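Local shape tokens:
==================
===
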Amino acid sequence: FSTKAPTLDRAKAQRDRSKIAVVPNPYVGAASWEPQTTAVGRGVRRIHFIHLPRECTIRIYTISGRLVLTLRHSSTIDDGQEPWNLVSRDGMDIAFGVYVYHIDAPGIGTYIDKFAVLK
């Protein structure tokens, strides 16, 4: 038998941009799926960007347009995910509200959507 090296089908990758999502959305601050902790504070808070291309930059903005954080995603698979602990680039927990995210994948294009963080 023979094998083929992996290739990037740019047309399919561009069509698949619509699959990119944030889970959970909305994020609920006291959700049952979060790990229980006996330590003081909330414990780990996390969302995931899913169905990402191999290489991309994720920029997260407040609804007013202020940059909250930039994440760089790099993986060996086409359908990757990137976690985010809901901490801003200033090291602060983000406030409840609506956020906009912008995905920029070189050679594929961009994708923009939003997610909510509820109390």
In short: The longest helix spans residues 10-15. DSSP finds one helix and eight strands in the chain.
